[in-house]
Amino acid sequence: MTTATPPTSNAAKRFARAIEDAENLLKHFDTLNARPPKPDVEVLKRAGLIMAMTAWETYVEDRVQEAAETRIDAVPDATIQAFVHARLTEDINRLHNPTAEKTRQLFKDYAGVDLGASWSWNHYDKERVTKDLNGYLKLRGTIAHRARVIEPGPTRAQPVKKQDLQTAIRFLKDLVAATEKALAPNAP
Questions:
Q1: pLDDT band at residue 3 under the 50/70/90 scheme
Q2: CB atoms within 10 A of CB 188
Q3: I want to staple 182 with a disulfide (CB 3.0 to 4.6 A). Which of 75, 92, 118, 160 is the partner?
Q4: Domain with 44 in it
Q5: Distance between CA atoms of 100 and 81, rounded to whole angstroms?
Q6: Which H or E element spans position 94?
Q7: Does residue 1 fall inside a structural domain?
Q8: Alpha-carbon distance values, 113 to 27, 116, 125, 126, 127 (Å)
Q9: What H or E segment, with its residue span, contains residue 162?
């Protein structure tokens, strides 16, 4: 007996395509990074993390919009619909950095779902998901908003290690799957 897979949202489908950019940058890093390591290919790992976190941000924006549309359209008063649509658009435009707290609040407000309880899988619980997601977003901010400066002296450790990027990609895929499960019709 096979279990039917729940329908995947359009946001999840777009996320799957977008996260491939980060995966491809990691593959290019592996291809170009010979022994001894080449410092000029380190940019691919940094770019990969930025692309992975951008895929998450886009997913959150698109998914909350999808989830809210159904609820908003069910409201019989067109004036209230217009007000909530405008407010949702404002909230999404101000999001910029979808931390765990902001994401959970956005989905609670517009989808009526508390994601916190659903954000657990394997060795992850809500607290670890929150810590890791916020950590990846902070690292993205650091590498996206501060140019890499080469200074004389000993070489500094790279801000994004290969393992970090691999783990971030896997984490985000699992987080999207957990979010999709929580938002599925008849979710517990």
A1: very low
A2: 7
A3: 118
A4: 10-148+156-182
A5: 27
A6: helix 78-95
A7: no
A8: 36, 9, 17, 15, 18
A9: helix 162-183
Within a domain: 21: yes
Domain count of the chain?
Answer: 1
CB 149 within 8 A of CB 120: no
Residue with tokens 């393992």: 163
Per-residue pLDDT of 50-104, as tens digits, reads 999 999 999 999 999 999 998 998 999 999 999 999 999 999 999 989 999 999 9
User: Is the residue at 138 inside a domain?
Assistant: yes
- Tens of pLDDT, residue by residue over 107-153, are 999 999 999 889 999 989 999 999 999 999 999 998 887 666 555 55
Token code pair at residue 6 = 């729940």
Which residues face 121 on adjacent strands?
124
Take residue 127 and report the two structure tokens written for it: 């607290």
Asked if residues 123 and 170 have their Cβ atoms less than 8 Å apart, the reply is no
Residues facing 124 on adjacent strands? 121
The predicted model scores a pTM of 0.87
Residue 73 included in any domain: yes
